[in-house]
Amino acid sequence: MRVNYLERVYKGWGNGKLKAVVCEDEEALQLFLEKQVCECMEEAGINGSCEVFSSAEELLDKGNPFYDLYLLDIQLGQMTGMELAEKIREKDDHAVILFATNYKEMIRKAFQVSALDYLVKPLDEVEVRQALLRSFRYLSKKRNRIALKNQSGVEIFYHEEIEYIESEKRKVRICSRRGSGEFYVRLNDLEQELKGSLLVRVHTSFIINLEKIRSVRKDTITMESGKEIPVTRKYKDRFNRAFQNYCLEMRR
């Protein structure tokens, strides 16, 4: 029996569910693109879902939800697909954006919003499937992420950009390369969600990213930013094992 290479590629997706969205105002193309997305997910062994919207406004009215993959028609209605992509990028630098367009001259603009690919209409099924599978491969290499809600809305943090997480009373502060944010969530709950990642609990009040460690001295960890974080006895053995495994992986 032939082994499906894509099943190996996407095996690391875990229990998370990939969320895709199609924003297209032509009903026939909506059905076509939704079908291609779902079939490519199935072929790739991905647990995922696809939602369809007829306009940028309809998508944004949903409250700016977070998706992994956006397949956007550039020529939408009042708000264009390009303008929608700019709004997406204000909230999320990591999502994959694919454009469908009638005009090749729009291609250069597509890359201004870091689009991964573009498709020229009339759409070719083979090209669409190839673009989708490339997108899934790209997404599979991305780190996992957490989505947290505060008064400003939902913020998405990819594991790779987090330096450390600090708990203060009923809130946590996520410290990352793009600044920090405060959220009402229990550190114990975050610890469970982050199990198996490089984000490790080292203290009652701290979770740190093993990739962001500058040095380890006895009971103190110095992070890239210079922040010194204590390691308590309760978490020391667990941290030492995780850090040793990380260092061994880096040497391979």
TrEMBL record:
Physiological role: May play the central regulatory role in sporulation. It may be an element of the effector pathway responsible for the activation of sporulation genes in response to nutritional stress. Spo0A may act in concert with spo0H (a sigma factor) to control the expression of some genes that are critical to the sporulation process.
TM annotation in the entry: none
PANTHER family on file: STAGE 0 SPORULATION PROTEIN A HOMOLOG (PTHR37299:SF1), TRANSCRIPTIONAL REGULATOR-RELATED (PTHR37299)
GO terms assigned for molecular function: DNA binding; phosphorelay response regulator activity
Pfam families registered for this protein in UniProt: LytTR, Response_reg
Response regulatory domain mapped to chain residues: 19-136
Gene3D superfamilies hit by this protein: 3.40.50.2300, LytTr DNA-binding domain
Domain of life: Bacteria
Database matches in InterPro entries: CheY-like_superfamily (IPR011006), LytR-like (IPR046947), LytTR_DNA-bd_dom (IPR007492), Sig_transdc_resp-reg_receiver (IPR001789)
Domain HTH LytTR-type residues, every copy: 146-245
Name listed for the protein in its UniProt record: Stage 0 sporulation protein A homolog
Keywords: DNA-binding, Phosphoprotein
Modified residues (4-aspartylphosphate): D73
Organismal lineage: Bacteria, Bacillati, Bacillota, Clostridia, Lachnospirales
